[in-house]
Amino acid sequence: MLDAANMQRLVDMQHRSYRLLKWVSQAVTSQFIRFDTAHQYTTLPEATEPWMVEHYSNLPVNARPDRQDLKAFSHFFSTYLSNSFDLVAKPGKQRYSPGAHCFCPMCSWFVEAPHLKTKKVDSRAKRRAQTMRVNVMAGLAVERHRSVPDSVLEGLLKQRSTFVDASLAAYGVDLMERELGIVNGPAVLALWRGFAWNELGSPNPRFQLSAAAIMDAQSRLLESVVNGAPS
Ligand SMILES: [Zn+2]
Q1: Cα of 43 to ligand 1 centre, how many Å?
Q2: Ligand 1 mean position to 22 CA, how many Å?
Q3: Can you tell me the distance from the alpha carbon of 111 to that of 30, in angstroms, rounded to the nearest whole number?
Q4: What is the tens place of the pLDDT at every residue in 62-99?
Q5: Can you tell me the distance from the alpha carbon of 132 to that of 167, in angstroms, rounded to the nearest whole number?
Q6: How far, in Å, is the centroid of ligand 1 from the Cα of 34?
Q7: Residue 92 pLDDT
Q8: Whole-number Å distance between alpha carbons of 188 and 176
Q9: ∠ CA(177), CA(166), CA(216), 5° rounding?
Q10: What is the CA(127)–ligand 1 centre distance, in A?
Q11: How far is the CA of 35 from the centre of ligand 1 (A)?
Q12: 3-state DSSP assignment of residue 147
């Protein structure tokens, strides 16, 4: 089961990641963030934490985490980037001279922040998202000492309300994994669309992610798994 207080903290970090990316994008455009320092980082998560420590006081208050959450937030921010976007290199459009551009993983992302392209949700991502939904349901069943075959869970997911709830609950599990730096890829975008988009496939403009919505979805899901399971 997801924990309500922890979910509140994770959803807050997700909102901060989103605001931080917007800020980075503007700060790169206005050249507030520059690329003339050569970093020695080899991976994005490794680069993000020291960068945040160094720039902490410059980051907008609504986009930065509490200091004690910096490590978790660095995982959060880097998994947000790698789950959601493709780095599209646009040679020729670069305004920085090649000699002054640091090519470490973080600067490579940041320099492209104004032109990031959302990852494509292909059939592989959709299948993985469905597995994540089934897994979260199976986990709830096990907590109630039930063993429910995947085929039964997949049957329950054909109901729209169960599909939405399972998408939210699986997204909650992914938030916990992201804190540890686990990257589930564009499957997470597919989960997001499962609850933030309508049945016709367009985003619901009024949708706002909340920890309460995830916790409520989990409770309803537990009920439908237990009721739908052969006893
Ligand atoms: Zn760099």
Answers
A1: 10
A2: 19
A3: 12
A4: 999 999 999 999 999 999 999 999 876 654 444 444 55
A5: 8
A6: 9
A7: 44
A8: 13
A9: 90
A10: 35
A11: 7
A12: coil
